[in-house]
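> example.struct
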């Protein structure tokens, strides 16, 4: 389902990424190794079943070792080795991190943090997205790379830069400030309109000239929330403009599809990927298990479902993941035997047509030397390598799944604008964070067995039975109308607290909360009553709640549950309102996990949501279908075996299934269903 109708038209003329089956890929950094190792690497890639290799991602200093000098001899050799082995190339533009010679010649390209200090070379992404000097050198490099390899028959895909905005999305240098002002002038037209949008009458912040405006650098007090929100929007669009510039150079020289790797994950929030998606010939994402979270496996599922939503439901590529531990978390936990395969199956079950790893060979030096790889430090005599070979064989058997789409009748609305606006300096409770509330709602849905699309608030909702709206603090009039139309036409929605509060300018919708959704929900909230950290409130149903309560009154809704104690005893905590042909539920607090799951299950049943038998918190059951094909994915994250209903052929065990199938503890089954 397309978040915006123009996306389909925009992408229609673009080249389409095609691979022979499910891609099994990796990043390869041959510049880290002696050339004598390269042929052995390629031989082992073939042994593992690797068929798509990303190269030249961080190759700037190799192919352009000094100003005006380009040397492609080593890259030519690697290209030839891969081509001779029948391994296709995902070719990087090499612009991800400038070499020392460039930052030495032009220190003005270095990014500036919000405290006004410059960030220096020695890591990666030491460049300002608004720097015309950086862009001039980077595009000159892209021209050289695209001129040399633009018609190379083994280039399957172009890889612009790498993880754009991972470290340098928010720059406050002179160039960024000037570009921010231009962006604001284009957005608002007049300084008076900007003053209105930002509410600058507060604290005597009124501007009289564009030149007075700065980026939202650190202040003695809290900052203007409208300014901060617009700076996030600007920064996302500025990097998107940079992507477009590289892509334009490539398109003039090559017909191969182009993409870059998104970072749809729990700890990166700087880019609005819904706005980026129309520029991608195929959506690609990097994802790593985040063991800082209480439930990293569910976060993986959410990220994959959101990536598919960004792609408009189309198949996508997992461009980077890990075989085992990463290197950048406080505690880098190794994956258990079989976990890599389960993680890969999760992504494929949620629409990925390619599974790629960072990286091929584990580095011996540098910041990522303890990051796992397909070929670990221990070499081929290792459990990781043996599982890699097994995974390669499994992915070959899954080739027929390619091109099918995930079947889901439930959606969660997600917005980067709401994320940026919610997590502001000043808010009713710093214990309420946007992504945590989204994750809580998604976790409850997943635990009930529902298959979930994560989509933009303006997405076409007509194909869903249930739409969940967690903490959508900032919402446009059009998005609010979109949800109202869905419910009026017979759909069911669950809206959670702190939704509908402000418009796109972070301006409070007056007249009582939840503002944009008050009439739809049939309620009126006079005042928030957040709970202190650690405090709980009991509900009449016996449920336990935390974080939030509010002074809520019914207008047309009925109370389903109510607070027994806490700051608002006797006040409704869960409500239901009939609207048109549908129903709108409201949750005015944060239940514990089991109670949340029970409420969501009740609403899902009312909405007629399909929930496969056997699915639950530890067992995922999803379906991909299309062109007369249908596949059931069952992934068991628990120790106990489970039995699922299925008839067909199991691509994991290569055996027939008649009526039921046992999914072993920590195992997977992927069954091609027989036609009815």
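> example.seq
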């Amino acid at each position: 389902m397309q978040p915006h109708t123009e996306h389909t038209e925009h992408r229609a003329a673009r080249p389409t990424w095609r691979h022979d089956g499910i891609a099994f890929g990796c990043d390869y950094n041959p510049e880290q190794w002696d050339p004598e190792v390269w042929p052995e690497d390629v031989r082992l890639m073939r042994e593992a079943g690797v068929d798509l290799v990303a190269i030249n991602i961080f190759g700037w200093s190799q192919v352009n070792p000094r100003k005006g000098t380009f040397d492609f001899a080593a890259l030519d050799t690697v290209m030839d080795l891969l081509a001779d082995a029948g391994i296709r190339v995902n070719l990087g533009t090499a612009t991800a991190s400038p070499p020392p010679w460039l930052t030495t010649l032009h220190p003005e390209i270095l990014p500036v943090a919000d405290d006004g200090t410059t960030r220096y070379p020695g890591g990666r992404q030491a460049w300002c997205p608004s720097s015309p000097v950086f862009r001039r050198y980077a595009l000159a490099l892209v021209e050289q790379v695209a001129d040399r390899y633009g018609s190379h028959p083994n280039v399957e895909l172009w890889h612009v830069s790498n993880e754009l905005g991972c470290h340098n999305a928010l720059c406050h240098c002179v160039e960024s400030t000037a570009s921010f002002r231009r962006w604001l002038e284009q957005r608002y037209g007049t300084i008076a309109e900007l003053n209105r949008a930002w509410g600058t009458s507060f604290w005597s912040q009124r501007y009289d000239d564009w030149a007075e405006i700065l980026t939202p650098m650190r202040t003695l007090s809290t900052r203007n929330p409208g300014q901060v929100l617009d700076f996030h929007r600007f920064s996302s669009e500025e990097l998107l403009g940079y992507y477009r510039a590289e892509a334009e150079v490539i398109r003039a020289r090559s017909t191969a599809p182009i993409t870059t790797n998104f970072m749809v994950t729990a700890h990166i929030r700087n880019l609005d990927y819904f706005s980026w998606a129309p520029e991608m010939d195929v959506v690609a994402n990097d994802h790593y298990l985040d063991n800082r979270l209480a439930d990293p496996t569910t976060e993986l599922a959410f990220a994959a479902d959101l990536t598919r939503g960004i792609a408009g439901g189309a198949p996508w590529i997992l461009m980077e993941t890990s075989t085992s531990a990463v290197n950048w978390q406080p505690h880098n936990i190794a994956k258990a035997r079989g976990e890599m395969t389960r993680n890969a199956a999760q992504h494929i079950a949620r629409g990925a047509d390619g599974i790629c790893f960072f990286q091929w060979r584990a580095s011996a030096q540098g910041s990522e030397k303890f990051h796992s790889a397909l070929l670990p430090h221990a070499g081929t005599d290792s459990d990781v390598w043996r599982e890699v070979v097994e995974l390669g064989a499994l992915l070959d058997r899954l080739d027929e799944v390619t091109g099918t789409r995930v079947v889901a009748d439930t959606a969660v609305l997600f917005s980067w604008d709401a994320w940026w606006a919610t997590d502001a300096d000043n808010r009713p409770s710093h214990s309420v964070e946007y992504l945590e509330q989204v994750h809580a709602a998604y976790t409850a849905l997943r635990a009930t067995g529902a298959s979930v699309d994560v989509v933009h608030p303006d997405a076409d909702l007509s194909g869903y039975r249930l739409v969940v709206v967690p903490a959508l603090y900032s919402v446009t009039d059009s998005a609010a109308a979109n949800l109202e139309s869905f419910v009026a036409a017979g759909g069911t929605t669950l809206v959670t607290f702190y939704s509908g509060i402000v418009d796109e300018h972070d301006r409070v919708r007056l007249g009582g909360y939840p503002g944009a959704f008050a009439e739809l929900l049939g309620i009126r909230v006079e005042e928030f009553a957040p709970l202190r950290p650690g405090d709980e409130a009991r509900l009449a149903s016996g449920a336990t709640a935390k974080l939030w309560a509010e002074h809520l009154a019914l207008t047309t809704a009925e109370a389903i549950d109510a607070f027994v104690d806490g700051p608002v005893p006797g006040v409704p905590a869960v409500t239901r309102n009939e609207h048109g042909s549908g129903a709108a539920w409201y949750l005015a607090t944060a239940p514990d996990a089991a109670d949340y799951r029970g409420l969501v299950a009740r609403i899902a049943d009312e909405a007629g949501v399909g929930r496969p038998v056997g699915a639950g918190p530890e067992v995922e059951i999803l379906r991909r279908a299309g062109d007369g094909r249908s596949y059931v994915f069952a992934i068991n994250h628990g120790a106990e075996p489970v039995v699922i209903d299925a008839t067909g052929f199991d691509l994991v065990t290569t055996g027939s299934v008649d009526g039921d199938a046992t999914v072993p503890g920590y195992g997977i089954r992927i069954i091609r269903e027989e036609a009815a």
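> remarks
Confidence is low (pLDDT under 50) at residues 1-12.
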